[in-house]
Amino acid sequence: MIEFSLRKQLDTAGGRITLVVDSHIGAGSFTTLFGPSGAGKTSVLRMLAGLMRPERGRIVVDGVTWFDAERRIDLPPQQRAIGFVFQDYALFPNLTVRENIAYAVPRADTSWVDELLALTGLQLLHDRLPATLSGGQKQRVALARAVARKPRLLLLDEPLSALDVQMRTQLQDELASLHRRFGLTTVMVSHDLGEVFKLSDTVLRLEGGRLAASGTPREVFLQKRMSGRLNLHAQVLDVRREDVVHIVTLLIGQEAIDVVASEDEVAGLQAGDTVSVAARAISPYLSRT
Ligand SMILES: Nc1ncnc2c1ncn2[C@@H]1O[C@H](COP(=O)(O)OP(=O)(O)OP(=O)(O)O)[C@@H](O)[C@H]1O
């Protein structure tokens, strides 16, 4: 369990704001920080990592205080048992794939490096330099390096946003499986609602440095009723069967809604498809675009 209370003045394009975020993250959970640009998502991640100092507040991880402004406790990043993956990979350019990963492994444990190479599908690339890798391969190296010390907290700052859709989908699956396999507690910044629904069990939605909402993706993003401002086009986030009906979760603008759909409407429909939505008097129906 990670409990944190963070206060920090941020200088934004629109003036100075105070970031005020109090929350907790369950051990083993996959939490996404979501919100508009400048909301303070990266700042929260950096404060958890010890790369940015809050003016006031506390961070307590499994009963160990990482930061406490009043008691003047501020563990440096290397004592916080974190793995951090950035959008731009941040690999050592002059080290091979194996050396980049081994750098993070205590006492040059070769068999553990081999296992990490295997887990991330990098065995055949082990002696390559980062400059010769694709974006997805580089990010796999960064992920392997970040989990090498079995961190208490894996922090991911938009790790997949530079990748194309196919590579992104593949790495989302690999990320989910690493998270489960190592029982990690993961906090990720993402702008991609499809990714949020796919990966996270908890969302912290930030706006202007404040926690605007928190809960499961459904609790945070689903509307309780149909909006009167429906866009015509929607992205399918999820298709599932509940009892005798099909439920399709749709992203419309910045809001997600559940609609009941017929067998014909969902035939072949999958996450990532786009559909058009029309509202009848009471029940909505879907058609492909
Ligand atoms: N050390 C700092 N001191 C004061 N203000 C800062 C500091 N670092 C960042 N900021 C400002 O805080 C605001 C929030 O930045 P942050 O990177 O946390 O936002 P974000 O929600 O991650 O945005 P984005 O989605 O664009 O990455 C920005 O306006 C930024 O300029």
UniProtKB/TrEMBL annotation:
Alphabetical UniProt keywords: ATP-binding, Cell membrane, Membrane, Nucleotide-binding, Transport
GO MF annotation terms: ATP binding; ATP hydrolysis activity
Every ABC transporter domain range: 1-233
SUPFAM superfamilies membership: P-loop containing nucleoside triphosphate hydrolases (SSF52540)
InterPro entries in UniProt: AAA+_ATPase, ABC_SmlMolc_Importer, ABC_transporter-like_ATP-bd, ABC_transporter-like_CS, P-loop_NTPase
Pfam short name (any one): ABC_tran
Protein name (database record): GTPase
